[in-house]
Amino acid sequence: MVLHVHSGHDNRRDKSVHLPDELSTLDCGEILAQSLAPGLIVYLKGDLGAGKTTLTRGILRGLGHAGKVKSPTYTLVEPYPDARIATYHFDFYRFSTPEEFLEAGLDEYFQGAGCCLVEWPDKAQPYLPPADMEISLYVSGAGRQLNIQAHSKEGEACANRFAAHQAD
Length: 168
Ligand SMILES: Nc1ncnc2c1ncn2[C@@H]1O[C@H](COP(=O)(O)OP(=O)(O)OP(=O)(O)O)[C@@H](O)[C@H]1O
Ligand SMILES: [Mg+2]
Description:
- The chain is an alpha/beta fold.
- The chain is about 25% helix and about 30% strand.
- Strands 1-2-8-7-3-6-5-4 form an 8-stranded mixed beta sheet.
- Strand 1 (about 5) and strand 2 (about 15-20) form a beta hairpin.
- It is globular, with a radius of gyration of 15 Å.
- About 40% of the residues are buried.
- Bound molecules: adenosine-5'-triphosphate and magnesium ion.
- Adenosine-5'-triphosphate binds next to helix 1, helix 2 and strand 8.
- The site of adenosine-5'-triphosphate (ATP) has 18 residues, from helix 1, helix 2 and strand 8.
């Protein structure tokens, strides 16, 4: 994997990685897992099939979760209390209105010490708490491009740890 660090539009350092195949998305997730911290809110953005759930599988593997990782498309949230950092994986694709986020009582998950990974965050706006870090995935040739943007001090620290691990 090659890491390119370039300046973002807001002059923070965005981090960008090319992922040639599914295995590299899983590996990238495992590396990301070593950088995460309790309470971190991570938005996972990208079109249908961009690789958000695949990346989450890698993250959970990196956090020591040995079992399956199901897409939360129907359940809205899948909890992983056995992970090294308790993690909640959300998918709001099926929301027809953002109010469903409040009706389902999901806001409570975002107050605790768990790490929250959120697919389709825009579907729950404006109710979803802001992201510490935003990961975007794009189709790029036969593979994917992954970009990380930090939006808080904690997110910035996580993105910097990720860049340092990548360089190893
Ligand atoms: N780096 C990659 N290169 C090529 N294919 C990839 C890569 N990463 C993941 N894929 C493939 O992309 C497909 C879709 O992945 P995934 O289900 O993770 O997408 P998603 O973003 O979660 O989609 P959805 O929005 O529907 O939940 C899978 O078949 C997976 O194998
Ligand atoms: Mg998915």
